[in-house]
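Work package 3, deliverable 3.1, input record:
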Amino acid sequence: MELNVERDSYLFINFALGSRYVSKTATKSVSEFEYDAPSMKTAVPGPKSQELLRQLGEIQNVGAVHFFCNYEESRGNYLVDVDGNRMLDVYTQISSIPIGYNHPALMKVMTNPNNVSTFVNRPALGILPPENFPDKLIESLLSIAPSGMRRVQTMACGSCSNENAFKTMFIWYRNKERGYANPSEHEVDTCMINQSPGCPDLSILSFMGAFHGRTLGCLATTHSKAIHKLDIPSFDWPIAPFPKLQYPLEEFVRENAQEEARCLEEVEDLIVKWRQKGKPVAGIVIEPIQAEGGDNHASPDFFSKLRNIARKHGCAFHVDEVQTGGGTTGKFWGHEHWGLDDPADVVSFSKKLLTGGYYHRDELKPDKPYRIFNTWMGDPSKNLFLSEVLNVIRRENLLEVVTRSGKALLQGLYTLQTQYPHILSRARGQGTFCAIDACNDATRDSIMIKARNKGLFMGSCGEKTIRFRPALVFKEYHVHQLLNILNDVLAEHK
Amino acid sequence: MELNVERDSYLFINFALGSRYVSKTATKSVSEFEYDAPSMKTAVPGPKSQELLRQLGEIQNVGAVHFFCNYEESRGNYLVDVDGNRMLDVYTQISSIPIGYNHPALMKVMTNPNNVSTFVNRPALGILPPENFPDKLIESLLSIAPSGMRRVQTMACGSCSNENAFKTMFIWYRNKERGYANPSEHEVDTCMINQSPGCPDLSILSFMGAFHGRTLGCLATTHSKAIHKLDIPSFDWPIAPFPKLQYPLEEFVRENAQEEARCLEEVEDLIVKWRQKGKPVAGIVIEPIQAEGGDNHASPDFFSKLRNIARKHGCAFHVDEVQTGGGTTGKFWGHEHWGLDDPADVVSFSKKLLTGGYYHRDELKPDKPYRIFNTWMGDPSKNLFLSEVLNVIRRENLLEVVTRSGKALLQGLYTLQTQYPHILSRARGQGTFCAIDACNDATRDSIMIKARNKGLFMGSCGEKTIRFRPALVFKEYHVHQLLNILNDVLAEHK
């Protein structure tokens, strides 16, 4: 895990406690298509947003809507709202905008006449793929395939990706159990009425604090917030503790290793217990960093040992990279930080990849057609955009940008929590996938609203965490803008 | 149900048994953007498709792929493949292409510079909707809202629509049970670990032969084919028999009414039984016509009584219009044929609507934000296309076109089954949502392959059924092309 940021150097940054950050890169020219700073005209949500909220409230629950956006006017890292407020956006549509708003390369995809038909005629990919489909997969998703994986299945969103990844693991597991023989007549008959053995009592092991989506299968592995799960029927599947580490990780190596050992022991106990209950664990699903659950990290050693436990007990190992994938940690996949040759059996993705889907090892390929299937199975127009996003990532060395900006951001967060120890703690991160805790949820929410009114739009997660999920084009220049605003807000809080 | 086609008139059609259909509309000019007929160069799949199949087979299971398509060259009702074969397409990407390939109106959406940003910046609709989002909903989805419904939630696909519709019904049901009080601490705690009462043992009643999607929640209500369900864990939810009617419906009114009464009785028994089991039925889900399960119809009287049973037992009534919605039955929603003022509590859609989603009554609106939520919650670029599709449907009176073409198609199918009674039977349909059974699955498959090689691409469903799912721009001219080819194939089969 690349958390070996030059943390000591924060002491030498050229600003006094409480003063504003001085941008070391202010002279650097900003990409021509972007604005240079936030610009606020009203409190957020402004009057236009409030009127639209009222209108939309007649149609949908709008309790989660922050404000309405003017996407035409948004550029790069800056999100413009309908009241003309321009904010530095470090939440990026719940971490799903890879290279900023209205990137010229993506605008070009739209104006290329060769692409029109891909948008206008959405195919049923599982039965009638377009001519260029294998080529587009090779040039986009397969060019970034995780270690050991040559097969990929696209899906429309993160939840469908995880649902189908789970199905792939169940099918693989039962085929193993059957010795790859055909299913019995009894299995075929019972599956039609939801009964065992056709619909077997298999389970997926997940972790407390995990988030893997909100459809019923995914939701049975999601344990981040009660509001997601309340009143929805679920499966009796095992839930292991996720390590609760102390930060900075380098300062608590021994304590954290103990905590991780405790959790791994519990994982093995649960696998055995659920096998005895007649609900064997077909797969283990885990995020490289628990995001929605509060930005919880674990060490490469933890993941390596967990991967071995999965192998030992014959469970598939599914790494959910829906939020960590796409370059935000400084490597393309979060699990690359573990340094394993054989890190996973299944890797699912969505968000920054613009299309959902999952990679899997050859061994897990479905044995028959129509077992993993739906009408659309993804959307080739999203693959077009993804190809271009990958070109930009390569051309502009965005993984290096993320690593550099991430170091500056984490360093700045360390400084802030030293300055405001009664307000902030537990700064942590990998690449720009950073977070910091407030002393309580009310303070966290208040900081976020004040920052927003000063032109900084951040996300929250867990109970009292602020999460940073900027686009990959978030430069050090933007880091300093962020830190300046946050510093101003905290200074007022004092 | 509008099955009162002038069936007797088929006897007077001006062609002799065994001869080719004479197009009565041959003089009518074909829309300028469309081809005028199929044109075949190779057997299907041709050599280029076969080479691409090999390539894609390295990446995915391609067992369900028919052939590869040249979508650029496809027009209207004609799908062109990579080997230059041009087929009359009456399956339309599993019933998901509303107004044919490359419709000029949809091409225009793409070339309108005002729309570019909607494609390039996919928002997280639940937190940061675009300025025009309420307007676009009003002009598209709300302009076609089912009777009694003013609220709609978009989703990315049919499965996510049904999953979230189920969740909406569970939340509504538990809120009723709690008397709209806040959940207890025990409920909040237990839901985090998948246990009752927080994750209650509620159920959804579905029907044998139903298809509602393939994610784990949906799959527990899907009972059309074993290959969809085998090896996937499921819920112990009640499954009622769907009426097995005899066709033509008008000739078996008494027998069919008896069969429907039997099924309705079973529905009530199951609701009582599952309540006693401690797994009360929160909702009943049903398709207006079971599609994937074999194009099974039921009468308006059946649906009316079922709706009353749902009300009597306090279950929500969810009509799944994913395949029947969008005009294909001659009305915009399949359930409009029932003639009820109060047909449903929830109506889900996808496919021809281009975006997934569901409408629901005010009473079912989620009481809190983030209960029905995900990152994207649909895709506004699909709403842009939908607005234009609705304009075309209105401007070109496509519901009337569907009704007219549907009558001609069903009439032709009646004629064919009279001509080939040893091969075909049970012709049935509503609008162009038509089907006919072959004597067995091998014959069905053989007819479909032979027809494809003559330029007619059809779909299958159930055990031995051919299903017709043309686009809404399928005119009588195309009906006669279809019947001519089918007639030729059957004549050879004789």
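The radius of gyration of chain B is 23 Å.
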